[in-house]
Amino acid sequence: MHVDRRRSNLLGRCPRAVHHRYLPWLSRGSIRGEMAAALSRALKLPGKKGSDLGEYDPLTQADSEDESEEDDLVLNYPRNGLGRDSCLGTGSSKLRGGRSGRLVGAEDEAQEDEEEEEDEWRERLPSKSRQDRDEMKGTQYWSHKDSGRDRAGEDRGGSGALGGSGLGVHSTEAEQKRMRMKHAVRSAFFLVPLVCATLLVLLCAFLIPCKKGELEKRLQWEKVLGDAKNGVTPPALALWDVDGDSFEDVFLAVTELTNDTHPTQGNKVYSAVALSAVSGQVLWTHFMQESVMYIQCGLHYGNQHTPVVLLISKSLIVAVNGTSGRDLWSVQLKDIESQAVLLPDLQGDSVPDLLIATLPTNVLLDLSLTLISGTGEKLGRPVSFNLTAGGKIMGPLLHETQQGAYYILFGIGNVEAISLRDIYFNATGRTPRTPALQRRDPGWEGLKKKHSSSFIHIYRGTEPVDFLLPLVAGFSNNRKSLDTVSNLNSTRSDWALVYGFSKLSVLRQKDMRKEWTFNSAPIHNQPAPGHFNDDGVLDLFIQHSANGIMQAQVVDGASGHIFWTAEFVCPRLSLEPSAVSTSTGQSAFLFWASEPIKGQKNATKTTVTPGIAAAEPLIRKLFLLHPAYPTILLELTSTTDTAVTSAVSYLERQKDATYITVSSRPTPESEPGVHVVKSMSLKAAIPKGQIIRLEEGNKTGEPVKPGAFEVNKFFRRLSFKHQ
Do the beta carbons of residue 89 and residue 162 sit within 8 Å? Predict the structure, then answer.
C-alpha cells in the first residue's frame, strides 16, 4: 500500500517528464528500495530505520546510491526546469496525448498523498518543533521554486529543446520588451536635457557674443545735423528712452541755414530732433519759431502716461509727445532765463507742477518766478524779486530740508532761498492744499536777517557765484530730467559752490556753512562730482587754464585737498568733464585735452607764450582717468573737431555706457561749420585706446609701475553702471 501510494505521489509530482524518462526504471522489482532510498536522502536520514519502511537493507542502500543522480532529478524536478504544465518539451506527441488525461486526473490524488506524507514526516521527526519543521519545509519549497524558475527561464530562453510556445515564452518576451522600453525612456530623460543644455551653452558661447559685438557697433554712429550758427555755442542736449528699447535716445536742438531770404522768416530754421540711441536714425522732428535753449525730459501726461519732452525757447514752452513729437500743450512767456524745475503737486490733482525763472516786465525788478501746472496752465501771476547783486543767474533749484520743508534756491551773483509755500501764496493768494507744502523749517527760517524779509541768505559775498550744483554723482545739466526719481537725491544734498572764478567750496545744507574752501587758478567749467576714493564722499574734478596750460585736478570732497593733478597743452575748450560710475564703486572721469606735459613743467611754462596759446591745437583728445591707476591715462579718441557739449548714457543690461558728443566741425571758409553728433560705446573704445603714462621711468626706491598687460586687463574688464 505504501509503495503504491508513493508511486502515485511520485507520478503526480511530474506527470509527464518523469514518467517518460523513468518508465523502464519504475518497472524494476526494487521499487520499494529505490523509493525508500530517495525518501531517506530527501529527509537527510540515509540508512536509518523507520517504522513504515521496515528494517535496514544494505542492498537497497547500495542500489539507492547508484541511482542517486536519477533520484535527484525526480525529487528536484523544479530545479531542472520540469514543471507540471510543460515537462516533455518537444517529446512524442503520442505519449503526451495518451497519458494526458490520466495524469491530469491523478493530480488531485497526488495532493492527498502529499498531505499524508507530511503527517508521516512529522512522526519521523519528533524532536523537531512545529516551527522548525515549518521553516524547513518553507525553505525547501522556496529554494526548489526559485531554482526551478531560474532553470525554466534558461530552458525557455534556449534553443527550445524543453520549452515550447507556451505562456512562459510570451510573458518573458513581453517583459523583455517592457524592460527595453523602460531603458529607452530613461535614456531619453537623460539625453534630452543634456542636448538642451549643450545647445544653450553653444548659444551663450557663440550667438550672444556675436549679438553683443553687433550691438556695440550699432551704438557707435555719427550724424551731421544742422549748422554751427555761432561757432562753438553748445546746442541744447538731453537723453531719455522714448521708444522702449532700454537705450536712452538723444534729443538735440538744431539750427539750419536756408537760401530763403524772406524778410519775415529770415534764413534760419529751428527745430528739435529725436535720434535713436542704437543707430542714430531720426525718430521725429519738431519745428520751432525760435531757437531751442533747453530740452528736458521725464514728465508723463494724461491717464495713458504719455512721455513728455519740454522744448523751451526764449518766449515759449512746448510740451510734445516723446514718442511722436506731436504737440500736447504750450505756454507763452517772455524772457525765459532758466530750465524748468519739477515741483511737488501744488493743487492736489496728482500732477506735478513746474517753476521757471523769467525776467520781470518791471525794469526795476531783477527776476521773476512763474508757476506752471503739469497740464500747461499758468498758476496765478509771476512773483518778482529785487536782487541787489549782479552776475550770473543761479538756479532755480528745489531743496527739501531734513524737516520736510521745500525751498527754492536762486539768485543773481548771490544765492538766496525762499519757501515754496510763500511763492505759491504770493502767486495765487492761497496756501497749498498739500499739508507737506505748508511746512516751514525753523532752522532755515532762523537764517533770515530780517523778520520782514522772505529771503534766506545761502551765500552773499563780494565775489560773485559762478556755479552752483548739487553734490550728486553724475550730475549734469544735460541729464537734468524731470522725473521724480532723478530729482530725489539732488533735492536733499549739499552743494558745490564756485565763486570768485577761483574758489571752490562745499556748503552743508543743514546749517549753510562752508565745509572747506579750495583756491586755484580761474575755473572756467562746471566741476564734475564723482568718487575718486572709497570714503563715500563725492570728490570734484575741475579744470582751469592759464598761460596756455590747462591743469586738471581732483579735489577731495571731505577735506578740500588735492588727490590728483596733471597738466596739458591748453585745448581751448569750454566743455565740462564727465564722471562715469563703474563696477568698482569708483568713478571714471572723461575729459578733453591736448598733449599731456610730462617732466618738463618749468621749461614748458616759460616757452608757452600768450600768442602761442591763442593758436588752437589741431588735435584734441578724449582721456579716461580711473583712480586705480592715477599715473595712467587712456586715450580713447582724437579729433580735429571742437566738442561743444556732451552727455553720458548708461546701458544697464550691457554694463556699458555711451559717450554722446556734439562737435563743431570746421569747413572751408566759404561754407559755415556743421554740428556733428557722435555716439561712442566706452567698452568698445577701451580695447582700442592708447595708454599714456604721466610719469617717466621708475626712480630709486619707488614701487614698480604697472605693466601694459596688467593695465589693459584691468580696463578691458571695467564695466559701468548708473548709481
Answer: yes
